Amino acid sequence: MFIFMFIIHAGYGQHTFTAIIKNKVTNEPISSVTVLLNSTKKTQLSNNKGIIIISINHITEGKQLIIFSHTGYETLSDSFYFTLSTIEPIEILLTEKEEYLDGVVIQSTKTGRTIRNNPTRVETIDGEELDEKNNMRPANVSMLLHESTGLQVQQTSATSANASIRIQGLDGRYTQLLKDGYPNFGNFASGLSIMEIPPLDLKQVEVIKGPASTLYGGGAIAGVINFISRLPAEKPVYNFMLNQSNVGQTNLGTYLSQKKGKFGYSFLALANLQNAYDVDKDDFSELPSSRSFTINPKLFFYPTATTTVVIGNSFTKGNNKGGDMLVIKEQGNNDHTYFEENLTTRNTTILEFEKKNTGKNIFKLKQSLGFYKREINIPNYRFLGTNTNSFTDISYIAYRKNHTLIAGVNLLYDKFKQESINVDSNLNAKSFTTGLYVQDSWDISNNIKIEVGARFDHVQYSNINYKRNQSFILPRASALFIISNKISSRIGGGLGYKIPTIFTEQTETMQYQNLLPLKNVMAEKSIGFTADINYKTKVTNGLSMSINQLFFYTVINHPLVLQNDLAGNFYFSNSSKNVYSKGFETNLKFIYKDDLKLFAGYTFTQAKAGYLPGNQFLPLLPANKLNLTLIYEKENNFKMGLEGYLTGNQYLYNRKKVPSFWEFGAMAEKTIRKISVFINFENFTDQRQSKYKSVVNLPHNDPSFDDIWNHTEGFIVNGGIKIKL
Asked: In whole angstroms, how far apart are CA 655 and each of 325, 334, 603, 612, 649?
């Protein structure tokens, strides 16, 4: 801590305290800083040059406590020693709060940098936003992603509410889902992934939009979503939650953690109970009858101050059944026979070793083994399979004067084994990927930072029809330009690929019926670019604003396209016509005195497939989306919010255009010491697809279903209690 000295006239005469208050990072003067002399309880404000002059009468010489505070900055309290002489004004440096400084440390880029200093554009969902979305949907992360700019949760089942996630309009198979950096949600395991990831143990969610192949390889064409878990700290955490909704859902969860000496632990447990719910009284469920639970213990060992070992296991089991309400209630008859049942078991074991060496260089070993089993049952059809996934990553991070160097190798093994007994085709498949990567983050100056990386992947993939080996060289580059303390810009681009898979959003809606194994297909390849500009300023005393404008463009070569033959079977082939997605996102944020916050996000997406005849727009993709959120919060006291979302026109698979629609939500939370009570009104205008046309087409014993382009369940109100000990 610096010792500041200011020498003034001694005794009981008049003393004058003069200081210049500046931003610690930019060194620019800060106006309207509140300066409090603790002994007199009197305050003054700094002028537009950051200067403060306080005349102090009848104060004896010695130490005096002075407090400096300003909206958006950390409060500074320090003691100053008053003596006989006078010297030049002292310099006071204030540090911006993380919310203004973008001081959140990013894990997905592995460099340990903050958002502000990271050349790769990374968006985070954390803090109060994460807590707010947890109140809405404690069972899974679907709501958390649904209401984020540039992301779209695509429902794939009318009766069981299964869903996948899209980034910038591209199919869900092009998005890499990670939990703490582990890619255990691919292929068959992707079908219900976002429905089985609980949010209660999350510290933050990191989203990289655009190609992220250098560190994560295949599957990161559209981007990466990384769910980051909390880590234990010295202060113990004991969190409990109970939630109940009007649609028959009950959630009971707990998160516990603590670090003590050389050991630490975290423990997540969540149980979800959902009764079948038929909002439009058409005898078919919009929400299935569901029972699921998750248990995730982790043990942390710190043998030295520079070494960490983590062992963990996550186990999830789910059972949900949707369809005809009479069948769900076990009262079916000849006219009421349809159901869709999903039985899932997911188990993932992880092992991590981290060693910090001289100069803060870091050696990391990450190992995971995932097992996913899913059984799908509908009348006269059963699909059962297991997906085994093994991931190993060894990396070394070296910190030099102006460089952060990362080099590593990872191995990824994925195997799907079909166990159904009444299907005509064998969909067994496996792949093995060996990847080498290197990346350099170079601080050319305080204002220019670049990140250049490359990856080499060799992939072997095979099924009963063929075996193929392919190699990929994947360069990627990004740059950050800090034009001033208010304006910054990022650009980036790179290559990507996705090896062929039968597990897509389309085949999920079919329950993989009449699907033939892959034959003589090759990997899809991509090139993508993003560019953004960010501006932030303080409009008035207490009011700050920021705006981020992002542009994106991605092209996928040789896209894998689902087709059908004369016998009614479905198969995949590579098209010679490209898929591309381009558009922009605009994000606005206004904050008034830390209490009142307004967020606005607009996304324009134009995505087309050259292989589609006539209208080439990708189906089930709105060209326009608008997100609006207004939040008022008194920290650790009271919070309330209002949200509005506009979803623009979309085209269905039959090329029919459907109308745009608005949805609105509201929430409130009151905290009294360690207990919080919350209530949430989701979609309180009851926006749903069945108001336009029934999603289910009769007859009851052999129904067909329209494409899902709107909400199916309608208005939901839920509330509960949280206890934080």
From this structure: 31, 35, 22, 10, 12
